[in-house]
Amino acid sequence: MAGNSFGNIFKLTTFGESHGEAIGGIIDGCPAGLSLDLEAIQKEMTRRKPGQSAIVTQRKEEDEVKFLSGIFEGTTTGTPIGFIIENTDQKSKDYSHIKETYRPSHADLTYDKKYGIRDFRGGGRSSARETACRVVAGAIAKQLLKDIRITAYVSGVGELMLEKHYSKLDFKTIENNPVRCADPEMADMMEALIRNIRKQGDTVGGVVSCVIENVPVGLGEPVFDKLHAQLGKAMLSINAVKGFEFGSGFKGTRLRGSEHNDLFNEDGSTKTNNSGGVQGGISNGQDIYFNVAFKPVATLMQKQQTINKDGQTIEMQGKGRHDPCVVPRAVPIVEAMAALVLADFWLLNKLSKL
Amino acid sequence: MAGNSFGNIFKLTTFGESHGEAIGGIIDGCPAGLSLDLEAIQKEMTRRKPGQSAIVTQRKEEDEVKFLSGIFEGTTTGTPIGFIIENTDQKSKDYSHIKETYRPSHADLTYDKKYGIRDFRGGGRSSARETACRVVAGAIAKQLLKDIRITAYVSGVGELMLEKHYSKLDFKTIENNPVRCADPEMADMMEALIRNIRKQGDTVGGVVSCVIENVPVGLGEPVFDKLHAQLGKAMLSINAVKGFEFGSGFKGTRLRGSEHNDLFNEDGSTKTNNSGGVQGGISNGQDIYFNVAFKPVATLMQKQQTINKDGQTIEMQGKGRHDPCVVPRAVPIVEAMAALVLADFWLLNKLSKL
Amino acid sequence: MAGNSFGNIFKLTTFGESHGEAIGGIIDGCPAGLSLDLEAIQKEMTRRKPGQSAIVTQRKEEDEVKFLSGIFEGTTTGTPIGFIIENTDQKSKDYSHIKETYRPSHADLTYDKKYGIRDFRGGGRSSARETACRVVAGAIAKQLLKDIRITAYVSGVGELMLEKHYSKLDFKTIENNPVRCADPEMADMMEALIRNIRKQGDTVGGVVSCVIENVPVGLGEPVFDKLHAQLGKAMLSINAVKGFEFGSGFKGTRLRGSEHNDLFNEDGSTKTNNSGGVQGGISNGQDIYFNVAFKPVATLMQKQQTINKDGQTIEMQGKGRHDPCVVPRAVPIVEAMAALVLADFWLLNKLSKL
Amino acid sequence: MAGNSFGNIFKLTTFGESHGEAIGGIIDGCPAGLSLDLEAIQKEMTRRKPGQSAIVTQRKEEDEVKFLSGIFEGTTTGTPIGFIIENTDQKSKDYSHIKETYRPSHADLTYDKKYGIRDFRGGGRSSARETACRVVAGAIAKQLLKDIRITAYVSGVGELMLEKHYSKLDFKTIENNPVRCADPEMADMMEALIRNIRKQGDTVGGVVSCVIENVPVGLGEPVFDKLHAQLGKAMLSINAVKGFEFGSGFKGTRLRGSEHNDLFNEDGSTKTNNSGGVQGGISNGQDIYFNVAFKPVATLMQKQQTINKDGQTIEMQGKGRHDPCVVPRAVPIVEAMAALVLADFWLLNKLSKL
């Protein structure tokens, strides 16, 4: 209700502020009997963590997840999985300069007005640090989903757009470059662009694409909890996201029905996939694919005018350690949220028919 | 859980198939003491109903909503509002030809596989007829929201895109043309395009834009139930929707932070509004605006190849009465879903602080 | 949230006032493929309906349930099951005398204060008429549960208490007497008592006992949604209920652990069943049994002092047609609520382990 | 869904096993701006903790709660409150003897069958240790409820029943005796009984009564989430609880309506309070009072026959440190659960009318 839970059956509830002692969460509804690969979970954390390359924030967090319950001798027990991640690099003084300040295009003003109080240290709850908990839960969801393969990659940084169809890309290259672009040549250009923008103390937006292969037919709960609607909500709930489209997306609006319809093969698969793997809110067994738009990071290493709590104009400049572009680190978060949605619907779908 | 409810506090649950006796719903959580304008509700129904103009489906439904509870002497009582809308124009035989057939880019196959049974008459539950119930609930939500003004309009039909900023449009013109475009000249072109496409037995997609004015600060429940995340889910749950973007949207991904940041005025309002009225998942008091992408209708009045339940290739052609383009009738649905989201968050926000 | 839904997966939402046009509900989450025996549903309705015998209210309602969706050719489709029951015997004028009056031990004052408005006709939403919808849903739940046998019966009317263990009773006799007591001799005495009390214009309380046989191990979701906790809530949500105990109940508090513990047989069954079929909130395969306490009906056919809205003392006397004792008609309601709880947990339990 | 959350708005989710590293929880939905008295919270923990007197278990736990989020400079921020309580006295080896054993009247068999795996150390999740988290959340709820006074006390131990009406008791004496009985004389007898039973290696059940004073009119959400129904569920979800009754309870079933009805005073209060402060599921402003039945603890310091996983009969005897009677330590848990229910409904009730 108060917005810190996600999912129906496989349900994640998170807590924690950027600069508190720890963040963490509870996963309720993970079935018993799942033998967990804890290293694989930590590996996902490492993909998201700060300081992993020269083009991301240099905040130093080990992001080591500590499980407190729900796992016995390496296997889930069906009881809630509680976990925490310590904030080892809390430097609260970094933020004293914004105590009274509303930073432009941050959540400072809205949190303050909504709650009447604000933990100003590093954005508090509104910081993207919170997404670390999503990655933990998503990593477990991935293991539950076994053969379903979820792959996200960067397809846009600023004006650089990777237009190639995903079937033409080699997903194995994604982790070979710090941008997490699935095309090495484009990756180089994107990296150069980000480095350049960082030098200017500026930031840039981008697009993350995601492909989900090997999806069983039947996932999604119409009419409100359609598969793509829940995926959309999941993605839009990630910090800095401005848009979501799946299948033919916005471009599909320009087509005629005779162009857009996906004709069937005799086995029930389709010759084209403008539907993006979803029909009527339910997976149809084809690949699911979608794009997620991220705005440029709001914290600049440039001077900006803004206001303080009293409505006075002041000048400020970002301090601390920030990402010039979030999309490289957003890739595992997009995958995690997709995994949470699919795990939830995969469980729910077991109850669809007798 | 099974997907037919929307909202937390102001909660709509719907039922009904396209060709059953009636569809309907229950609104639970509408506060007592709201004096309802029943005519205004019916007026919204009329904006959505079939047969309203030459460019929409000619199915004949009065779409008269009948309230069964929760209203006493014109005022809400705080108890659940039950309502039904009769299906007066059920022509089940129209659909006998698709009993064994999976229509391309419809939900026939996915429903059949998920549930093991399918009410094939007119798409059954997957028909957009279900959205009539959303319009009822949305119309009540609008009355609850009083001064918050929600305006949707058609901004794209096929390749015709209305690029003007919404502040340049005269919203009063929207209901003056059958397309519900907010620009009369563009409206004429769009209408001509739709008529032309209909003649070919084809269909076309489009875009609905929505602007919400006079929004109080504080709506939205991060970190998962962010205002724009819930708006996105609401829109994506509407039949035929393929994408959602708010504020700067996908275009915003190409900007630099120094271009994208919305600087504050001294009263806390912002000089620009790339944020689309939402910061950190909470309304900031600026206008909320977003775009919703609709695919072309899948039912064509042309011959198409498809398969039947046994996987045999057959040829089919749409019969009955279908929309060549859904966006004109989608306008009130977009508004209704936006109203549901806002009403829910408006109520929840009363509990944010002591 | 606003309290008119029950269940997690198999979820009932109801609407309707005693004297509106109709009451009804939506069952969301019933799996597809359940072939429904509609006569059996109607039969449950008949067990609850007014006018069925000389010792219950003489209000005349056919209580014919009309299904509007979710069933196709006699089988559930997995989509929400919408239904209505018309109020054919609405006599609103019967209640004009209480328009301004708060009846003692009714919900008149509390509804008025909570909502600021009251549908005074027959108690409005607070009337037990609402339980008809529970019986519809419970009857469907019963069919879903197949071999699980739920049997309720009257075990107390006023000072008359049936102390025999349920294994000594012949459940086949329950429907042979208007009291629905499982012991013919006691049934006669109870009937005589109720007739006598009715003559005096008075009312009396009673106890309904319920036994659930053939329950699989594993139902219930600790730590909060324990099987008996949800059963307790279900029963306490029925009008006029004042208490719930299961297994050894209140008497069990007086025993020593060495007397109370249920020792195991080698097959995992237990030699005694003080646990009432539930251990740690999860069914253990033994019979579940519990008692539900009902207070005497508040509407008397005697003069009583009370107050009106302005706080003035007035004298009133019940008019209309009321039950002198609710327990005979409560029997099918208790069964229905038990069925709803079990169906919900039976579905959820499919997700407990891989 | 998976049963580890309680509440709608003020929502507690817990995790943790008896012998894991820590237990903990998340409170989501506590409004911002509540200035917390952390000492008062810890004091509630101390009332529940083991080792507090000679008649309770001697397990040594400091039960120090550590808040990780949601509180800034002593005040709630509206973001989720995460907390943990370390298990400092984990002695896992104490339990190796029950690894393969199903203890009578414990949840060993049911957890094992439901989940296919069991954390056998100290009952794992089914241990009452979990209730420590409820006390944390309840203590915060109490502070939110301010003037509403919730008082629980022991009214029964075995055959010793305190029959005095609560208005005749001096609640200040409750914490003066280790039994937490509100009558000093009875307290002495109860303590003697418990000591005697402990010597025999046996255990005994009991009753906790609870009185809630100064309750505003309007709490409760009919028709399913009636105030007393949710209170009943809350109590029944506590380990070892077998029954719940409020107001006149089971005894009320024997009364006539003319005896049971609570006549009004002119100010809307009632001359009697058989209703127990609730009418139609909504608080009426009178005192709420109820009784909760607890069974005797299942772990005996005597030899008992039981079975192991393979269905072989074996003999066992409780080791470790167990309570001979749970009711003294259950008192703060009953209060905590009552506080959770009231806080939730107190918040929800703000939305009942415009």
From TrEMBL, chains A, B, C, D:
Q: Which GO terms describe its molecular function?
A: chorismate synthase activity; FMN binding
Q: Name one GO cellular component term.
A: cytosol
User: Keyword Signal on this protein?
Assistant: no
Keywords recorded for this protein, A-Z = Amino-acid biosynthesis, Aromatic amino acid biosynthesis, FAD, Flavoprotein, FMN, Lyase, NADP
What does the entry list as the binding residues for NADP(+)? 48
Describe the reaction catalysed, as an equation: 5-O-(1-carboxyvinyl)-3-phosphoshikimate = chorismate + phosphate
- What is the free-text note on the cofactor? Reduced FMN (FMNH(2)).
Pfam families, alphabetized: Chorismate_synt (PF01264)
PROSITE patterns (UniProt xref): CHORISMATE_SYNTHASE_1, CHORISMATE_SYNTHASE_2, CHORISMATE_SYNTHASE_3
Give me the residues that bind FMN, please: 125-127, 239-240, 280, 295-299, 321
Q: Which Gene3D superfamilies match?
A: Chorismate synthase AroC (3.60.150.10)
Q: What cofactor is this protein dependent on?
A: FMNH2
Residue ranges annotated as transmembrane are: none
The Gene Ontology biological process annotation of the record reads:
amino acid biosynthetic process; aromatic amino acid family biosynthetic process; chorismate biosynthetic process
Which pathway is this protein assigned to?
Answer: Metabolic intermediate biosynthesis; chorismate biosynthesis; chorismate from D-erythrose 4-phosphate and phosphoenolpyruvate: step 7/7
- InterPro entries recorded for this chain? Chorismate_synth, Chorismate_synth_AroC_sf, Chorismate_synthase_CS
Q: Which residues form the signal peptide?
A: none
Please state the Enzyme Commission number of this protein. 4.2.3.5
Family from the record: Belongs to the chorismate synthase family.
Q: What HAMAP family would the database entry show?
A: Chorismate_synth (MF_00300)
Q: Which PANTHER family match?
A: CHORISMATE SYNTHASE
This chain's function reads: This reaction introduces a second double bond into the aromatic ring system.
Subunit structure of this chain's protein: Homotetramer.
Provide the protein name: Chorismate synthase
